[in-house]
Fold these 3 entries.
Entry 1:
Amino acid sequence: MEIIGNEIRSKINEIFNNNISKVIVSNPKKNCEYKKIDIKRINNIYFVSKFTQKQVFNENIPVTDIVDFLIDKISEYKQFNFYSSTVEFAIRITKKNKIFYTKNIKENKLKEQNSQDRQKQYIFREGEQILPLVDMGIFTSQGKVVKSMYSKFKQINRFIEIIDDAVDKFKLNTINVVDFGCGKSYLTFLLYYYFLKIKKINANIVGLDLKEDVIKKCNETAQKYGYSNLHFFVGDIKDYIPKFDVDMVISLHACDTATDYALFNAINWKARMIFSVPCCQHEVNAQIKSPDFPILTRYGVVKERLSSLFTDAIRCNLLKSQGYHVDLVEFVNYDITPKNLIIRAYKTSVPQSVCVSMREEVKKLMQAFDFNQTLFTLLDDSKPKVE
């Protein structure tokens, strides 16, 4: 049906009487700044995303102003699609400025969005002043995600979400954390922000690494942010002795058996929570062999992946044998990095029979493929008591 001249405003007003939750403005005319505009209803505002070829710009528009906003775009775009939960409306403008209106009843209802996708899904939200994310180049100075860094932004939030799930199991007002092999400590700074600003937990965090220049830079950065209870020290995972009761141990990409020493320390300190991303698991790969299953060790890639999986499974079992609930979680897609598994463990009540069974499973695996494993050896030599 053709709509003439000034009737377009009344037609858009009529459309919005149908509880419109989404609008897409597309098919721009020549020299238009934005390729497309997406508009989503969120409570009493419309969240507007304006897309160029390489960037997206966001703004909020009150419900009362949305019709005026769209009227202003009539001269710039040829296609306007409006979506409610049951109906799709469309306004199309031809080259000769004729305007046509269509209405389609949808078979599948469109789920209304009650919150912005990013804010619903992520712990760190756009619009917040998070200095570490700005310094990392993930946020602009205005608190917007840099488009090329959006994948990294999702990875960071996924890591914090995994920690958040465990932290919520303990009602903590304060928390002591040791981060082994902290490196440049991007995640350590964000973890401190998460505890202090989001969870309202007083955090005392110690970062440990072997590189003096890196540690110096980290301490300078902590001072710049005003993170008074975040400190970094030069030290080895094997030798570190904390001066406080440890609630959480983090070990991200500690190479080969360094991960085992981090886990061993965490167990001895009776840490409530452990988060470990294994890396460079060479130990088992250098030993593994099986007369019964030579096919599994014949091909280099298969042997390497099998060794890594054996190592991860052993560490999980041994943590269970020491009274931990354990999950092995994918926190990034495999196509981003094959080192995409994180061991998440938190202290719980585990029956003694289960603890014994977990350890026996490890022994049988090592015997079947004729290898030793560092965490098993450390625990076997020390024989710490299970609570």
Note: Residues 109-120 have pLDDT under 50 and may be disordered.
Entry 2:
Amino acid sequence: MRVSIRVDIEYQITADQPILLTLEAAQTEGQVVVDSLLEIDHARLQRMAGEGGVGARVWAFVTGERFVLRYGATVDVARAEVDLNLLAADPMHGLPPEVLTYLRPSRYCQSDLFTEFVAVQFGHLAGGAKVAAILDWVAYGIAYVGGSSSSTTTAIDTFNAGQGVCRDFAHLVCSLARAAGIPARYVSVYGAEVNPPDFHAVVQVWLGGAWHLIDATRMSHADGLVIIGVGRDAGDVAFMEAEQPVQPVRIEVSVRRA
């Protein structure tokens, strides 16, 4: 599937402030960036590798107090849906070193607080079947409510509140999977099926020796997702970071099947 992406952002910023961005489509397994153009007014750009070597981060050294960004990309996605129930979990001692990180608790994914719940709720299952059950539990047990959470909301907050947005769904799935001994990482994406279009959050779980995309919000499917970056949680892949306060003026995201 070919996906077309357009992002227009305008912020009021402190004069001459560096801005760190994670919003370009990644050249990574399952997708090919056919063309891509990032333009930022009055800025010098400096790129570096993204978290876990997936995608890229961009420092924008902006002159002035206005941050104006335009980004467009065309991406070919060749990623098939998989039946989670057919996938086995890898033993901890057999995991690649870079995957072990995604078994551990993080700032927004306190997987250590869910160990007992996961054992009681999903202990009779194993591997991909356990992940599928976790996905169903979150999809049907947590209500998607826009504006119901904030940048400080954690997985345990979402669990207790019973509501959240895509970011919260992803944090909770990551936490439950990690508590079950299955590596899971937070994934920032563009989704062709997400309505209204926006930066979206899903999860990758490590099963059968590979990463597999899942979305507990049920808004998207693997063949319509364009990966931007990955991390332990949202703190690793925020689309924009700044040292000083910034004020949004306009954020427009368009994602469609080309």
Note: Helices lie at 97-100, 115-122, 127-141, 155-161, 166-179.
Entry 3:
Amino acid sequence: MIKAKKSLGQNFLIDKNIIEKIINSAAIKDKIILEIGPGTGNLTEYILKKNPKKILVIEKDSNLTVDLKNKFNKKITIINEDVLKINETSLFKEKVTVFGNLPYNISTEILSKWIINLKDNFWFDCLVLMFQKEVAERIIAEFNTSNYGRLSIISNWKLNIKKICDIKPESFYPKPKVDSSLLCFYPKKNFVKINDANNLEKVTRIFFNQRRKMLKKPFNQLFNGNQKILNKLRIDLNLRPQNLSLDTYYKLTCEYENLRS
């Protein structure tokens, strides 16, 4: 058994039932597939059985890259690189389906990077990604709940998200200390047009910097108490950040951009 590297957040998926659920979550036949962190290739093996047009895998661990080459030969294209340093849009000329058992220590960073850099012409049809359960709950959280926050708002901006299942530690080697969840992300046809996604990141960061405090201070910091915006979006400054809907944050970001244009 290959030894997992703790520094890379490696936990190899070994549960065949979970692997079946993953590959049945999205269309694979005749599609270009991108797999993030294939590890020992257990999921890759099952994807190949579904007859994809092509498989690219991104694996940072050089030792695992050698093992994957030996195991699959020329059946897959292997990129030995850090996924955070790759421009995915440069890899393909058509849309892809992405599978990823993401390293827990950088999972939110990977997702945020993809969303912040996402143009209106999506480079993927579907993302099938595994997260620590606690992170997944923050991603899919609805407003007025304790898990709702920046990650919920940014993730749901351009994407519809569906939870597939929860996964126990026993499905991995070595066993993580936490449960996991499998999520599917699909491009939205309609979403609020924001000129620069970094502005959404900034607005949510300032509002949730003190999530238990009322909205007055962050609103004044961004909008200098602009009463027209309050009236237009019907915002009560006595509320807290988690009480504003997704749509309100997207519209607030548009107002922020308008003030600076």
Note: Residues 197-259 form a domain with the Helicase, Ruva Protein; domain 3 fold (CATH 1.10.8.100).
